Amino acid sequence: MYPYLNVFGRAIPMYGLCAFVGLLFAAGLVILTLRRRKDYSKLHIVNIPVFAAVGAFVGAHFFYFLTRFDVFLHSLQNLGTVFSSWENFHDAFTEIFGGMVFYGGLIGGILAAFIYCKVSKVDFSLYADILAPAIPLFHAFGRVGCIFAGCCYGMEASWGLNYPYVDSHDIAYTVTRLPLPLIEAGCNLLLMAVLLILRHKHLKKGSLLAIYFMVYAVVRFTDEFFRGDEVRGILFGLSTSQWISIPVLAAGIYMLLNRYKLKNKDSFGYRVPLGEVPEGYIYNQYAGAVSPWEQVKWKK
After folding, report:
1. CA neighbours within 13 Å on the CB side: how many for 161?
2. Which end of the chain has fewer CB within 10 Å, C or N?
3. Rg of the chain's alpha carbons, rounded to an integer?
4. Amino acid 274: pLDDT
């Protein structure tokens, strides 16, 4: 494993570096998408990712805190030791809040973006479809960072990557484990490709985010069975991420049904394919390109 990169005597975390590079690629994908689009607001396409990033940061650390709640309770019972020195406080704080959980980041980011759109009276579904393919692209780079950091590894296997391990007797050796982060990174890239292909179809707004929820929830629920790390939280035989995958899958199914079956067929409108605003459509700063059958309510 290679957790740090030494640059001019300064140690840079490889996980953070991979996440930053992933963020740049995700932003580049959004820019390429919007280069030919006329049905969006430049102001909102900047503000929504900013709010989503803040929500993702908070959500990722908060969910990690939930997985380390036992450590938090232990720290509360030993506050004298925790505050006896800066080093002890730093170690305790890092142990409780220092990690991140992807699902927490996803939920926090989506929630923050939704609140922004609600307050700004913006059509969340339109911008969700623009940003949806960038989520698995960013996540793929994050999983590569997991390889460097030596976390989120798979179970012991006859093939894979060698991870350092120290047993209870302080004897260090290496263990061959499934390269699960690389496998999930590949799944994320494949999911991104599928979303990019579907983006050119005449789908209802919000469909791409719903499809992402459904597919990723299934992928994550499955690969959790092959994880080998212990710091994940287990309840009734399922990990924390598997329990979260269930409502995420249900949310994706509901969103898709809501657009095509449960609501009036025109309630969510159809997302406009790449290119200029089609004839008969009008541009609205809140809803994007509005179809003729939706214009009545927007003109009120």
Report:
1. 21
2. C
3. 22
4. 46
Is residue 17 situated within a structural domain? Answer: yes
226 domain residue, yes or no: yes
State which amino acid sits at residue 47.
N
Pairing of strands 234-235, 238-239: antiparallel
Distance CA 233, CA 221 (A): 14
* Helix (H), strand (E) at residue 15: helix 14-34
Distance CA 247, CA 243 (A): 8
Among all chains, which residue has been given the structure tokens 């339109």?
126
What's the full length of the chain, in residues?
300
Note whether residue 94 is domain-resident. no
Instruction: Return the residue matching tokens 């060698």.
Output: 162
Question: What's the CA gap between 248 and 103, in Å, rounded?
Answer: 9
Count of alpha carbons within 13 angstroms of residue 273, beta-carbon side: 7
Nearest to 273 by CA among 201, 198, 212, 208: 201
In a domain, 54, yes or no: no
Would you state the structure tokens that stand for residue 278, as one six-digit string? 């089609």
Between CA 258 and CA 265 the distance in angstroms is 9
- Count: domains in the chain: 1
* Distance between CA atoms of residues 222 and 227, nearest Å: 10
Domain of residue 156, residue span: 4-41+122-299
Q: Which helix (H) or strand (E) holds 45?
A: helix 42-67
In the chain, which stretches have pLDDT less than 50?
274
Q: How many CB atoms lie within 10 A of CB 139?
A: 24
* Measured torsion, CA atoms of residues 220, 222, 226, 229, in degrees rounded to the nearest 10: 30
SS3 39: coil
pTM as predicted: 0.81
Give which of 94, 101, 96, 115 is closest to 50, Cα–Cα.
115
Parallel, antiparallel or unpaired: strands 172-177 and 288-290: unpaired
d(C-alpha 144, C-alpha 150), whole Å = 10
Burial class (CB within 10 angstroms; exposed 0-12, middle 13-18, buried 19+) of 283: middle
